[in-house]
Every structure is written in structure tokens, then in C-alpha cells.
Amino acid sequence: MPRRTDIESILVIGSGPIVIGQACEFDYSGTQACRVLKSEGYRVILVNSNPATIMTDPGMADATYVEPLTLEVITSIIDKERPDALIANLGGQTALNAAVELGEAGVLDSYGVELIGVSLEAIKSGEDRDEFKAIIERCGAEVARSFIAHSLKECHEAARELGYPLVVRPSFTMGGLGSGFAHTPEELERIAGEGLANSITNEVLLEESILGWKEIEYEVMRDSADTCIAVCSIDNVDPVGVHTGDSVTIAPALTLSEEQASQLRELSFKIIREVGVDTGGCNIQYALDPSSGRVIVIEMNPRVSRSSALASKATGFPIAKISAKLAIGYTLDEISNDITGRPASKDPSVDYVVVKVPRFTFEKFPGADPRLTTSMKAVGEAMAIGRTYTEALQKALRSIDKPIVQFHWNEPAPTPEETTALVEAVKVPTEARLVQIQQAIRGGASLEELHEATKIDPWFLDQMFLLDEVAQRLKGAPALNREVLEDAKRHGFSDSQIATIRGLSEETVREVRGAFEIHPVFKMVDTCSARFDASTPYAYSTYEEENEVRPRQREAVIILGAGPNRIGQGIEFDYSCVHAAMALRSRFDTIMVNCNPETVSTDYDISDRLYFEPLTLEDVLEIYRAELAAGPIRGVIVQLGGQTPLSLAEGLKKAGVPILGTSPESIELAEDREEFGKILDQAACPAPAHDVAHSVAQVHEVAERVGFPVLVRPSFVLGGQGMAIINDTAALSDYLDRPDIDQLFERGPLLIDRFLDAATEIDVDALYDGEELFLGAIMEHIEEAGIHSGDSACVLPPMTLSSRQLERIAASTEQIARGVGVRGLVNIQFALLSDTLYVIEANPRASRTVPFASKASGVALAKAAALIQVGESIASLREEGILPAQDARFIDEGGSIALKEAVLPFRRFRREDGSVVDTILGPEMRSTGEVMGIDRDFPRAFAKSQSSACGELPTEGTVFISIADSDKRAIVFPAARMRELGFTILATAGTASVLRRNGIEATVVRKSSAGRGPNGEATVVDLINDGLIDLIVNTPQKSSNRHDGYQIRTAAAANDRTIITTLQAFNAVVQAIEARLSGAFSVRSLQEWDAVRKGEMK
């Protein structure tokens, strides 16, 4: 059936902010959908609240709304745009839930909007646990013995029937939120209570335990002609009990027999038909009992899933793109496979192995339970391709950019006692489990022992024994000869690993390898295992004979991507890399290097060539070598992908690789306190009192000299890792006692600055070409200095800065950019205190604020930066219309006000007793994503940002206030306004006393530490747990005794209540509540805001 002509415009719903369980893989799928639908001639309307995505670029849709994904707002967009159809199966669970809500509210029917891609009935069939169970049974398959519950009482009744342990699975959630294995009634109470709260239908499924079974996934697709294909099978190394997003996964599945694979493929087709997914893809998860062969269907997602991005990148078969085409009427046999040119109606096949490894950041959440469960905790992932499992696994582990997860043989083998302890430790799945298994093998543990402890399939364990054998041969060889070296490389050993095993330097190993001419060849991902001719720009390395890199004529630019997502280095850097590829493609062959399967940059048609490879010096040098043989290369861009590629700049230059834009010397200079201080002196830019400590022993002395409070941070840090505000010597001793303290000194000294308490922090993104500065954005933080810029709300244009201050910021930025030697983007953080402008730090690279600044200002900063890096000037970019005549130092009074707000993952990270880790914000970044609110004034824009980030702000009810002594003077006005708006105010005794003396009625409530009163009077934590408080304001005391504050913040997070921890944010919230009380949100697309800036509309 050809494309539908009865519809002209389509609304695409995005997935909202990056959160654990729903990350940038949905930006990838949504971007593919928008590009396909536009190319087919439809008017595309997009709504998504996330400014960091490529999807929300104005060029991806005809009308782009960066707005809250709420029923009210989406209805307003439908009313304004009148789309003919809605596609919701490409935006994760958020979009699916929004479609259900629109359908049930009657919005789709009243506006005549057709839901395409997946029906409401199919969504409900996949999510309604009773209905899904009936469907599976009709397919002749089994689900685990289970009960549906809508209350804790029903949960306990079900537990009496099922016994412990049992599985809790909420309906309509993502990333396993609210799920888990309950071993006791107390655990059931906690896990099921959270699951009921997280499910939009207040429904959980309680299942018999299938812990330890094999977990298998299938990605399947179906078209309107009932043709079904299996895109990919996925094997989980971890057995059932660990969320698939937290497990090492393999595609295709390697441990199934042919009969099992055929059985699961056919069953998947029956399920997709029975559920009613008429056009598109879905993910089905199975549990397989290795002892009996019994198969249980765990669940299915009637949408493009988180695993779909992995399956697409693993096979070269673009699931989201094809799903979008199926939704508009095409059948699979009418869609051409881009790579082979043949119809897309046949299963893709591969002649290699793909391994995905999750990326965790438990170190950001001290005290969090490190155990992996069915509730996902990974913040990102890396993927690698190899000819064998061992090669792909080792490449994937080094792609994670985290030394503790890589196999090592440089220490003495564990003793028998240590080996026994390791075998005991691997019974509990954690981030370190694979390395613990590897070390236990070195210590003499048997395969049977390890299988019994972990329930990991013996085949995967046997492969780890094989790796140990290779390492032992490498270690014991009389010399590092060709045969030994080739053997190690074929099993994925890096030069760095070989060097530590042999007691050599990495450079020496590279030289030996070069002397033997042992280099990887690059093979192409072709979707067909080389059965047909394929034109593919998508390569991976392996150690074989035939190289498939084709010659080129044009000069090339290599762009190094950001690697796996992690807190501090997220999708924002992928955005800048994609923009560079888009900007340069008309002038150069663009070559992307990245290892993240979730992102748009690793889509095979974003750049001219894609290398799916680890971002290490060894791997990048081999790509450069292969491409230099294929054609001319202008150079490598390292400044757009965050700290990962930036850390390679010096090594690449030493090896003779030309670095485009800001030089490695300039990058180093910005981090060298002494040299950077000279630049600030020349520019007459004051910096806070500062010094450096080269060892732990020096820290106390330096801090005393600088003067408390101090801000400490390691050199070359991204995401504020290791940063902290220290108020006294006792707190500094606690900081130096952290387990990773030695790692914080690895890349340079510890930087110690006097902390500027009560300063206003300002973020600047600018372009510099060596002659002229273009000020891209000046962003004012809502919170005072001391909260990481990634976690702080910020506003653009700034709200409280005068034109004189803007000129001072511009002048200082230009002097610093010139002094450092910037060519491209620079991010500078200033602090304004008592009318003195201090420089906190300068980063001569793209920052995480670039996408937000670009969407808010209408200027594509990353595209301009890429062009400057290849020789364009700011003047020439103005002539071409890429940059406007005026920059951010001029504020358009009639323009938009944009707010960026952080989205925090605290609810995912709980202590072993189930309590949430502390939600207090500080200089170390903890947010996983962000949202944007954009409107004509600050209160409305802030209200939108809060609605997108943490749900609607309350417009009535009860507010609890407990603030630090230093904030009590300033609390009076916002508290008085809340009282005038009709809120009831509760407060702790000290705060209530201040409020009463200022004529504000407040009821005293007991602190948590005081316990209940003699007559059973509740504490504030009891009131929060009972749902009697709607808004919590709690600013922390500066002393280390913060137990009451911690109890309040964790209760708020556990009960999904809005909590504010700074006075500045409370003032903004009061304004936002007033804005909400004044009426519904108005909506305007980014394209319309651009027209306003150009004077084309009001």
C-alpha cells in the first residue's frame, strides 16, 4: 500500500527529559521519525520538553514546540495546529501515556486526530496486565503465575498465594521504575508502594519468582499486510533479576539453540499480531529456564523501545525510520533497505557479534545501594562490534571510559581466601561483577562454582576463562612476538592492557605492533552478512586480512563523539557533534567516531562515514591511519564531545594528527591555574583567592591559606565529579576520607578556591575566531553560586543584569578567549558579588548549555563553531546568515524568556533500607537531563519548566518551610505572598517564630528528630508521608549536622512532592504559582519565536 494521501499533517510526541530508563535513544527514534515524515511531504508538528535533543532542532519539524508534555498543553497545540494524525510509539513510555490520556479525555475524537503507528487498544493490551496475560495464553505461551493488585492489602494477599521472593511490576512505567524482587513483607510494602504510586493506573503485577532464568529479548516488526520480521534477538549476560538496561547484552543471541531461536521468533510474531500492533516495532522479553527449557513471556512494549536503538545500530536496520514509514501506509516490501537497496521485508542478518555494556554513576550518590535489580540504574551505555564475543566484550568495556570495569592482570592473582570471597561477592549483581568474575578465575575458581554463584550462562563464563588463557600466554611468552600479539588483539586486548601485562609502556607496545605491521582492518555493517552488494558508510574494526575502507576524493574532517552518556556528559555533547557533521557535510567528507548506540550521531546517514569504535587514543589513531590511506584529511575535531575526546587531544597531536580549532596547548592552559591566572591578570579579571594542592598532605595547609569556605575540584573535571563546598577543617577531613580520593589527583592537582557565598552565577557561551567575539548566550542562574551549572535552573536572557554588566561580561569573555587562544566555542563561568565580576573557570570547548542556548536564541552555535574550526570567520558567517548581526549583549525587549531546569534521578538511588539518598544540590552534578520553559515573561516560562521537570506546581494547599538561619531575613516576602495566595503555612519552631513576628500566620510542626508528641502529634516527615503537605521549602544549614533536613528531603523525594532547597528557587516558584493562577499556558513554536526575533510577527 503506498503512502497515505488522506492526511497532511502529523503530530509527533517526544519523550521529554533524559531520565534513567528513558534516555536519548528516544531522541534518536524521534529524530528519525521527523526526518522521514518531512521527506515524505507531511507537515510535521513536534512537541517535546527537552531542549538538549536534535529532535527539537527547528530544522527537524515544521513546527517545534518545546513545551510541557501535559494533557492541557498538548490539547492547546492540537487546537492551534489541527493535525490529521498523531504518532506516539516513538517517544517512549511518556509519549505512549500521553496518547492514552488524550484518547481517554476525548481530545483525539473531538479534534478528529487519528492515532497512527499503534492503536489505543494495542497500548492497553501491552500494558494492562490481565489483558496481556490472556493474550499470551491465546498464543499458546505462558506468563509467570501472577496476581494483579491495586492496593497494598491486595499485594499482601497475593504474596500469601505466591510466596517469597516475588516480582513486582507496575503498569505504564519505564526503565523498571517501581519494580523489584521482594524477599520479605517489609520489602513488598516498600517496592509495591512505590510501584502503585508510579503507575498511572495504580496497578502492579505480582509474579512468581523466576530469578536466575536466562533473559532473552526479540525486536520484531509488523506491517499492515501482516508481514512480520525479526530485526534482532538479544541475549542478556545477567540472568533474570537485573534490568536489561543494566545488564551486558549481546546481539544476536549466542546461547540459544536453533530450535529455541526459531520457537521464540515465531512466538514473537504471534504476540505482535494478537496484541494488535498493526504497523511498527515492538520489544518482547522472555525468560527461559535453562534446566527445563520452559519459556515465560515477561512483557512486551507496543512501541519502539530502549533496546530498539541498540538493535538498529547492531544490525544497520533503522527500526524507528521504518516504523514511521509503516505508520503512513507503506508495507515492508515497499520500503527499501538503505544499505542493500533491497526490500526491507526480510530479517536482517549479521556476521559479527555486538556487545552493549551499561555505564553507571553510583559515585555521584554516596550511600546508594549498589546492587542491580529490575529497577534500572544505568545512565548510559556503550556498544562495540567484533568478530568474536571476546573481542566485542573487551572493546565495549574500554568504551565505557571507566578503568574499574576493565579486565586487568597487573596485580598478583587473588589468594585462595580472596578467591572464596570473590565467589561469594559475585552472587550479588553489581557494576563490578564481571571484573570480580575475571579476578576469581585468576584465583582458581571453577566454571561450576561461578555458574552456581551467578547463574550466568556457562558459555559466557567459558569465554572469560578463554580470555584468562590468552592473558596467561601473553604474560608467559619469552618475547612479545607476532603470534602472541596477534592472538591478544583478536581477543580484544588493548595496547594498554598488553602493556600492563608485559610491564611495558603503551607507546612501546604500539611501536612493536607497528614494526610487525599488526593493524586492525575495518569491516562494514551491511545488514545481510555480505550476501548482497551493499553501499554502507558504517564500519567496525577487527584483526583480519581484508580492509573494506573505500578510497575518497574529498578532504575529510574527523569528529570525535562523546562516548557513553553519563551524568556530566550527556546528550548535549552529541547534539554539538551532530551539528558539526551537518554544517561541514557540504564542504568535506565528515567522519564520525563514537561508541554510543543511543544517539543521533551514530545514525549511519548523519555523517559520510561512521566508525563504531571506542574513543581511546589507540582506536582513534588506527581510524586516522586507515582514513589517511583512503584520502586527504583536514584534521580532527575534539572540542565538541565533552571531556572524553578532549582528553585525547594532546596524545593525538604528539602522534602527528592535526587538531582543528582550539589547540591542545590552549586546552591545557585553561586548566593550568598559574598560566590561566596570568591571563586573568592581563585582562584585569579578578578570580577568587585560589591555590592548588598536589597531594592529600597539602590540602589542609592550602585551604587554611585560601580561607574557608572553599570550593575544591579536581583538574580536568566534567560534571563536577569530586567537587565540593567545604565550610571548615572537620568537613575537609571528611572529604579527604572519600574512597576515590587518590583518583581525584590522577590528572593533576586539586584546585582550591575561596567559595563566593551569595554570589550570582553567570554562564557564558561564546564563539571566537582569533579576531572577533560572538557572544552566543549569557545565562543567569536562579540558584546562587555553589550549585553545579548542570543542576541549577538558569534563565536566558538574564533577568537582573544591567547593560553595563553585560558589556563587562562581553569584554572579559573576549580578553579571556584571546588570551587562551580559543578558535571556536568557549564556556566561561562568572560570579557577580557586590558588583565585582569574578571568573570561576573557562572551558575552551562546547558546553552542555549549547543546545539550550541555541534553541532559546535561535542561533546554531555548534554549527558556527565547526565552521570556525575549519577556517571561517565570524564576519563571513554573518554574511552567510549563519550568525545574526547582534549577539547576546543586546537584549530584545519583545523576545522570549527561556528557562532551563534540571531533572534529577534521586528516586532511582535508594539506600539498602529503601530510603532515598539525600536530594541536596551542590557543586557536583547529579541531574540526568533537562527541560525548557519558553514564554514571554519569566513567571510563565519558569512555571512551564517546573511543569515539565517535576509535574504541576500546587496552586492551593499546604506549604512547609524550614530554612537555614542565614536565609531567615529573606524568607518573609515569599512566605507572605504564599499566605496571600491562600496557602496554609507549616514551619519548624525557629522559622515559624520569624514568620509570626512579621505578621505571617504559621503553624509549628515537630522536627523528625523530636519524634511524635506526647499526644501523638505528627512530625513533618509523618505529614509528608501522609500526603498532607503539597510543597516543601528546606534550605540546608551550613553545619554538618543536617539530619533533620535530610529526613525532610528524602521523604519529599519518596512521596513525589516538589521540594525546593534554595531561597532563590522559592522566590521563582512563588512567581510561577501566580502565573498558573492567572490562566492556562499559551503555546508558541520555536519557528514562531524566530519570526518574532526577526520582526516578522509580534
Structural features, described:
The structure is a single chain. With 1098 residues, the protein is an alpha/beta fold. 36% of the residues lie in helices and 19% in strands. It is built from 38 helices and 38 strands. The strands form 7 sheets. It has a 7-stranded antiparallel sheet, sandwiched between helices. Strands 31-30-27-28-29-32-33 form a 7-stranded antiparallel sheet. It has a 6-stranded mixed sheet with strand order 17-18-21-20-19-22, sandwiched between helices. Strand 1 (9-13), helix 1 (25-39) and strand 2 (43-47) form a beta-alpha-beta unit. The protein is globular and about 80 Å long. The mean pLDDT is 90.
Return Rg in Å.
28 Å
Q: Main β-sheet: number of strands, strand sense, barrel status?
A: 7 strands, antiparallel
Using the alpha-carbon principal axes, give the shape. Answer: globular
Main sheet strand line-up: 14-13-10-11-12-15-16
Number of helices: 38
Proportion of strand residues: 15-25%
Describe, in short, the structure shown.
The chain contains 38 helices and 38 strands. With 1098 residues, it is α/β, with parallel strands linked by helices. β30 and β31 (836-843) form a beta hairpin.
